[in-house]
Design a protein that fits this description.
Layout: E1 19-26, H1 37-52, E2 61-66, H2 73-80, E3 86-91, H3 96-109, E4 115-123, H4 156-171, H5 175-189, H6 203-208, E5 211-213, E6 216-217, E7 226-235, H7 236-239, E8 247-257, H8 275-286, E9 295-298, H9 303-312, H10 321-326, H11 343-346, H12 353-364, E10 398-406, E11 409-417
Helix pairs in contact: 1-2, 5-9
Length: 418
C-alpha cells in the first residue's frame, strides 16, 4: 500500500521495537505555579531522569516545543548539568510530542546523540493562555492570522467549531453523546491524585453548562493549567537497563496534514481530520490495527477532538463516533479506555505530553492512583474503578496516542509493553 505522499506503508519497518521511552516526569498541575517555565522545565526533566535512573552525563540530546511561551532547551540542560550533542526547540503545541519522539529516534539512528529528553513547560493559566487572554491578549494581526483572527477565529474553540457543527449536521451526533467524553474522563480523573479537576460530572452537567462557542459548552473544553512534562527516548537495549519496564515504540506518524492545514475546510469533508491520512502510516508501520489497541490517548482539547480522531484513525466508522464514545467503550472497565488520567479535560493541559506519560505508565502497570501500596513500594491494583479507586487497565499491552494540533494537522504513536 502506498499513501498519498508516496510512502510505502506496507513494507517491514526496521525501527519497530528498536526505540523506547525509558523515563517520564512531570510537575504538579496547578492554576498558578509561581514558577518560571525554566524552573518548571528543569523540574520535569529532572523527574524523568530520576524515573529512568539516569544522571546528567547520560543525556546528550534535548527537544522541546512551545508557542513562544517556554524556555529553550540549552538553558534547561545547563541548569541540570547536561552537555548536549543535539538540541532543537520547535514551534508547536498539540501533536508535537509524538512528532518529536520520531525526531528523537531519527537523530539517535543518525548517530547524533544517544539519549534524548523531550519536554514541554508552560504557565498556561497564569501567563500565556491559549484562549487569547492573559499575556497573549490582543497581539497584532499578522501572517496566517490574517486568515483567522480577522474573522473572529482567535481561540481554538472558535477555529474548530465549524468542524464540530458539520459533524453534528452530517451524522446526527448529539451534544449528549459528545458529553460522554467529559463524563468518562472525569471518572478517570476521580482516581488520579494529580488531577486538577477530579470531580465526576454527568451528561446533564455538561450540556447545561454555559456555551463558550456553539456547539461547545464550558465543560466540553479543556482546563487551563501551569505545568511541565518530560519523557526520555533512547534505544530499547539501553532502556531495558533502566528501572522500569520500557514502553517500546512501534510506530510514529509525525505532523501529518490534510492537503491544506491552514484552511483545511477548503479540501475534503470539514469533519475529516488529519488522522484520516496519518492512519495509513501509523498502523502498517506498527504491524497492528485499531482492534489490537488496549488503551487510547486521544487528544481532548475539547470533547469533540477526542471523538473525531477516534473515528478517523479507524476505531469506529466515520459518523459512528457519537455511539463509540457514549456506549461505554472509552470508560475504565470498557473495551478500550481513553485518557485514563483524565486528560486535558480534567487532569491538566499539557499540549499532549501527559497522555503519552499516562500510556507509558499503563504499559508498566504503574499508574499512580488510590490503590494500596505493598511492602515492596508497588501498588496493588484492585481494578475497582469506582470513585477514589483504581485506574490501571488490566493486562495493558498496546497503546495508541492520537495527537491533535488543529483539524488539519496531527501526530500519533503506538507503543507496546517491553
Amino acid at each position: 500500500m502506498t499513501t498519498g505522499s508516496g510512502i510505502d506503508a506496507s513494507s517491514p519497518k526496521h525501527l519497530r521495537d528498536k526505540y523506547a521511552i525509558a523515563g517520564v516526569g512531570e510537575t504538579t498541575y496547578t492554576r498558578g505555579s509561581g514558577r518560571s517555565t525554566r524552573a518548571l522545565g528543569t523540574w520535569a526533566v529532572r523527574n524523568a531522569m530520576r524515573d529512568a535512573g539516569m544522571q546528567p552525563g547520560d543525556i546528550d540530546g534535548m527537544l522541546s516545543y512551545s508557542g513562544n511561551d517556554s524556555t529553550f532547551a540549552p538553558f534547561i540542560a545547563g541548569d541540570l548539568g547536561i552537555r548536549l550533542n543535539f538540541y532543537m526547540d520547535v514551534h508547536g503545541g498539540g501533536s508535537s510530542t509524538e512528532a518529536l519522539v520520531g525526531i528523537a529516534m531519527g537523530v539517535i539512528e543518525a548517530g547524533l546523540c544517544e539519549v534524548v529528553a523531550i519536554y514541554r513547560a508552560m504557565n498556561g493559566y497564569s501567563e500565556v493562555r491559549i484562549g487569547g487572554t492573559g499575556a497573549r491578549s490582543a497581539p497584532p494581526v499578522a501572517g496566517d492570522q490574517l486568515h483567522s483572527r480577522a474573522y473572529g477565529w482567535q481561540a481554538a474553540g472558535q477555529m474548530f467549531s465549524h468542524t464540530f457543527m458539520r459533524h453534528m449536521y452530517d451524522y446526527g451526533t448529539t451534544p449528549e453523546q459528545v458529553a460522554m467524553v467529559k463524563v468518562a474522563h472525569s471518572q478517570h480523573a476521580s482516581n488520579n491524585p494529580k488531577a486538577l479537576y477530579p470531580k465526576r460530572v454527568t451528561v446533564e452537567d455538561v450540556v447545561s453548562s454555559r456555551f463558550i462557542v456553539k456547539p461547545l459548552h464550558l465543560l466540553d473544553c479543556c482546563v487551563e493549567s501551569d505545568n511541565a512534562t518530560a519523557i526520555i527516548v533512547t534505544r530499547a537495549e539501553r532502556a531495558r537497563d533502566c528501572p522500569h519496564t520500557p514502553a517500546l515504540i512501534q510506530s510514529v506518524a509525525g505532523r501529518v496534514s490534510k492537503p491544506r492545514s491552514d484552511m483545511h475546510y477548503q479540501h475534503g469533508p470539514i469533519s475529516t481530520v488529519a488522522g484520516y491520512y496519518a492512519k495509513d502510516i501509523l498502523w502498517p508501520n506498527a504491524g497492528v490495527d485499531p482492534e489490537d489497541i488496549d488503551v487510547t490517548g486521544s487528544y481532548d482539547a475539547f470533547t469533540f477532538t477526542a471523538l473525531l480522531q477516534l473515528e478517523d484513525y479507524g476505531f469506529c466508522k466515520k459518523g459512528e463516533g457519537g455511539e463509540y464514545v457514549s456506549g461505554g467503550t472509552i470508560l475504565l472497565g470498557g473495551k478500550r479506555p481513553n485518557n485514563t488520567s483524565g486528560g486535558h479535560l480534567c487532569e491538566g493541559y499539557t499540549h499532549g505530553m501527559s497522555m503519552v506519560i499516562e500510556n507509558v505508565r499503563q504499559l508498566r502497570g504503574e499508574t499512580d492512583d488510590f490503590c494500596p501500596i505493598g511492602p515492596d513500594g508497588k501498588r496493588r491494583h484492585t481494578y475497582d474503578y469506582s470513585e477514589g479507586g483504581c485506574r490501571q487497565v488490566k493486562d495493558a499491552e498496546l497503546t495508541a496516542n492520537l495527537g491533535w494540533a488543529i483539524p488539519g494537522t496531527g501526530s500519533a504513536m503506538v507503543m507496546r509493553k517491553g
